[in-house]
Amino acid sequence: MNFTPNRISVLVARKLPPAATAVALILFCACEFEAKTLLRSCEDGNASDCNVLGQKYYEGDHVLRDRPRAAGLFGDACDGDVAESCFRLARMHQDIEGVTPDTSLMVDLLQKACDGGEMRGCTSLGILYEDTTIVSRDMERAASLFQRACDGGDAAGCSNLGDLFYSGDGVAQDRPRAAELYQEGCEGEAMDGCTKLGNLYAEGLGVDRDLNRAAQLYEQACDGDDWAGCSALAAMLATGSGVDQDFDRASELYRRACNRRYAEACYGLGVLYESGTGVSRQPARAASLFQRACDLGYDAGCESISGDENE
Question: Which domains occur in the chain, in start order?
Answer without folding.
Answer: 1-101 (1.25.40.10)
